[in-house]
Amino acid sequence: MNLGLIGLGKMGGNMRERIRRAGHTVIGYDRNPELADVASLAELVEKLDGPRVVWIMVPAGAATQSTIDELAELLSPGDIVVDGGNSRWTDDEKHAAELAARGIGFVDAGVSGGVWGLQNGYALMVGGESAHIAKVQPVFDALKPEGDAGFVHAGKAGAGHFAKMVHNGIEYAMMQAYAEGWELLEAVHSVTDVREVFRSWQEGTVIRSWLLDLAVNALDGDEHLTHLRGYAADSGEGRWTIEAAIDNAVPLPAITASLFARFSSRQDDSPQMKMIAALRNQFGGHAVEGSGRGE
């Protein structure tokens, strides 16, 4: 099938390549002309066969809203917009209603896989009407990992991003647990090789995971993470998860504490946040801050 893809950064660029490898045609647009296949959204829409499917991979909030507003003027009834960024689920509900008034379908897609998705595939959590999702299914099949897992139609519009938001909240807590364990191991004199302790956990233990594998990767590159500043940003989804928990009276002590721990990293050079920063860089290519040390 033909797909328009808007936003060709770290995620979008690799997604374009993976979809093309599956035999589909992807026409990409990005504000950086060196990455783009076309010069404008209007040209992208013009080159697509109808009914069109246009997938958005731009930052949540104003950038997504302006892109959807422009597409609403360019697309026709029967076309479909997929928001694969990290939008808030309440925005999805608004976008679905706005586009439905013009006869345009809307699907929200929570996408996980980071910079490794091109090789390993992307886990997809989608929301929207079944008929709309069925039209995009060939692209979902191209992006997802091999096998039966890695894709779910989570519910109506907004459900995909809500599921991805909870996924990221869990991720916060898991990374925090690994970081706390790593700092404690580093703090005692009796443990002389913390990196190899982490490596020993990769097989046969109940805490083995891809995040643990990435922690070992990070430690192989910088055994004591001395080149990192103990600072970790938050993307906003951790906050949204906690707000949703408050709205639904659901206790989330571990996820809440992990978000607050990131806030503390902005005050001090936290050893734990060095591991959080290293993990975020490993799976998502997120920027890190150097310690300023030359060793």
UniProtKB/TrEMBL annotation:
Residue ranges annotated for the 6-phosphogluconate dehydrogenase C-terminal domain, each copy included: 160-294
Residues annotated as the enzyme's active site: 164
Record's keyword annotation contains Repeat: no
GO BP terms: D-gluconate metabolic process; pentose-phosphate shunt
SMART domains in the cross-refs: 6PGD (SM01350)
Pfam family name, one: NAD_binding_2
GO molecular function list: NADP binding; phosphogluconate dehydrogenase (decarboxylating) activity
Keyword terms of this UniProt record: Gluconate utilization, Oxidoreductase
InterPro entries the UniProt entry points to: 6-PGluconate_DH-like_C_sf (IPR008927), 6DGDH_YqeC (IPR004849), 6PGD_dom2 (IPR013328), 6PGDH_C (IPR006114), 6PGDH_NADP-bd (IPR006115), 6PGdom_BS (IPR006184), HIBADH-related (IPR015815), NAD(P)-bd_dom_sf (IPR036291)
Record flagged with keyword Oxidoreductase: yes
NCBIfam families: gnd_rel, PRK09599.1
Family the UniProt entry places it in: Belongs to the HIBADH-related family.
Listed name of the protein: Decarboxylating 6-phosphogluconate dehydrogenase
Source species of the chain: Actinacidiphila oryziradicis
Gene: gnd
